[in-house]
Amino acid sequence: MLESILKRARTGNVTVGLPAGDLPALFRGMPVIGDAFRSGNVASMCARVCATDAIDPEKKTIDLGRCVFCGLCEEACGGEGIRFSRDPRLPSGKREHLVLGGQEFSPLAAATGIRSLLGRSLHLREVSAGGCNGCDLEAQALGNPIFDLQRFGIDFVASPRHADGLLVTGPVSKNMREALVKTYEAIAEPRIVIAIGACSASGGIFRGSYAVEDGVGNVLPVDLFIPGCPPHPLTLLYAILGFLGRPPE
Ligand code: SF4
Questions:
Q1: Which of 26, 79, 97, 244 is the most buried (most CB within 10 A)?
Q2: Structurally, how many domains does the chain consist of?
């Protein structure tokens, strides 16, 4: 017992405050679109290396709903076209808000009326719908002492009957479709759906496969998309708190 107390004293408080700093080196954050991307053939150069067709060279846009944050476009364009910052605050909201063209954007969609009903509390049932489990691991990390999701009144629950909404990862495999829909229907209305990661937004690297539904939006009405592959827990925190109308200052 004494050993535990001493260890706790030595460790100190590890919980990150918000707003937090940059993402760690292994994660890419908010892409910065350079002027070169919008002129000449730089966008085409970037698009050629993109395995998920996230870059539209005609419209000069990058779709964060498809992007897996591999960074190959940054290398191909020499950083002139697209540069990935370490900013964990990625745009989230409706699916179309994830398509960036260098325009000014509001980081969050206008929240639905359900927000006022939720108040300062949100209970989510998570469903892993056929992805690689990378997003599940980051969502699970929200509960550790570093990110401490519960301090915000947000938590995961075991039963959809106790939940205000669903948090879904993965492209929705055909085999998981029925389970996902049944879980959604077991949640009392009004209910929300949060889709995290590229797979849940567009199918990600599985897009077009015979075995998937190409994203949660093709199965359920989604209230909040959070991009990433996987999104860092800080990105998830910013997006969910913003959706609840409580963005960190
Ligand atoms: S970082 Fe995104 S946009 Fe760039 S090449 Fe990779 S998947 Fe495509």
A1: 244
A2: 2
CATH number for the domain that contains residue 65? 3.30.70
**Distance from the alpha carbon of residue 108 to the mean position of ligand 1, in angstroms:** 22
Query: What whole-number distance in Å separates Cα of residue 28 and Cα of residue 122?
Result: 28
Domain with 45, as residue range(s), is 31-84
Residues 29 and 85 sit within 8 Å (Cβ to Cβ): yes
| Confidence (pTM) | 0.93
pLDDT digits (tens, 9 = 90+) for 148-193: 999 999 999 999 999 999 999 999 999 999 999 999 999 999 999 9
Atom of ligand 1 at shortest range from CA of 82: 4
Which residue, judged by its Cα, is nearest atom 5 of ligand 1?
A: 50
Question: Would strands 122-128 and 99-100 be described as parallel, antiparallel, or unpaired?
Answer: unpaired
**Does one domain contain both 48 and 147?**
no
Co-location of 232 and 118 in the same domain: yes
Ligand 1 centroid – CA 75 distance (Å): 10
The Cβ of residue 76 has, within 10 Å, a number of other Cβ atoms equal to: 17
Q: Tell me how far CA of residue 248 lies from CA of 114, 168, 171, 201, in angstroms.
A: 20, 24, 30, 25
Q: Which residue minimizes the CA distance to atom 2 of ligand 1?
A: 67
Bigger pLDDT: 7 or 27? 27
Convert the pLDDT of each residue in 198-216 to its tens digit. 999 999 999 999 999 999 9
Query: What CATH number has the domain bearing residue 146?
Result: 3.40.50.12280
